[in-house]
Specification:
There is one protein chain. The chain is of the alpha+beta class. Helix content is about 25%, strand content about 50%. The chain folds into 2 domains: about 35 residues; about 200 residues, Beta Barrel (Porin). The chain has 3 helices and 13 strands; from the N terminus they run H-E-E-E-E-E-E-E-E-H-E-E-E-E-H-E. The chain is elongated.
Length: about 240
């Protein structure tokens, strides 16, 4: 009987110790679980820097992106492309030397803190077209016929504003995720570069003749009308980005 009582007592003591220890163990486990960071937690710690190589209507180019805060980046770059081709304006066949040169400085707003972006800023714009022609037959200048000797060589240019605003939409955030190295970027927008300043001159025998000068002014106006279509220049570009 005595041994039975001692055994029951020992069981009660053991049970009491187990109950006393249980809350502390549970608390410790919960505390440990709370101290572990969630796998998907992400702390944005700018600045991050990314580079992108792009190809589009401004020509090939490179740009750099710097992260400011999670939803705002700054972007700067440079593009250059040159193309020569021939074409007619009115009755004259010109050789065109097209130079596309632009250096954008943009702010990218990511309203949903993801890849989608709204972009705006300023373009240092050196887009320019040089043109020349040497007629070898009677040619209409400003609607009037002149001989090759009277015309001589025609030369001119169309130059756009050196600073032009840009607005566009795009996809890609080169500095969104610290774990992301490569990415895809895309832009669609417009540059408001205004109507170009067109100049045209000739060195033929009638270069100083008032009638020829009036005709040449009309020819210049015809070129201006054709070039005005580019006062709003479309931008479409895509490329790949790399984050450091």
């Amino acid at each position: 009987m005595k041994h039975a009582i001692l055994s029951i007592g020992a069981l009660l003591v053991s049970a009491s110790l187990a109950l006393a220890a249980a809350p502390g163990a549970v608390t410790k486990t919960a505390s440990s679980e709370r101290s572990q960071p969630a796998e998907n937690d992400y702390d944005y710690e700018p600045p991050y820097i990314g580079l992108a190589a792009k190809l589009g209507t401004l020509g090939p180019g490179l740009e750099a992106t710097i992260g400011i805060i999670e939803w705002l980046n700054l972007r700067a770059g440079a593009n250059y492309f040159r193309l020569r081709h021939g074409g007619a304006v009115s009755d004259v066949d010109y050789n065109f030397d097209i130079k596309l040169a632009a250096a954008p400085l943009l702010a990218d707003w990511h309203p949903f803190a993801n890849e989608f972006r709204v972009s705006g800023g300023l373009i240092y714009n050196r887009n320019q077209v040089d043109l020349g022609a040497t007629p070898n037959k009677n040619t209409k200048i400003g609607g009037i016929d002149f001989t090759p000797e009277q015309i001589g060589e025609l030369s001119g240019s169309a130059q756009f504003k050196h600073f032009a605003p840009y607005f566009g939409l795009g996809y890609g955030n080169a500095v969104l995720d610290a774990e992301k190295t490569w990415g895809f970027v895309f832009d669609i927008g417009i540059i408001w570069q205004g109507s170009p300043e067109v100049e045209l001159s000739a060195n033929g025998g009638m270069a100083d003749n008032p009638i020829f000068q009036t005709a040449l002014a009309q020819e210049e106006s015809d070129i201006q009308d054709d070039a005005d279509v580019f006062r709003i220049y479309p931008v479409i570009a895509f490329g790949i980005s790399y984050q450091f």
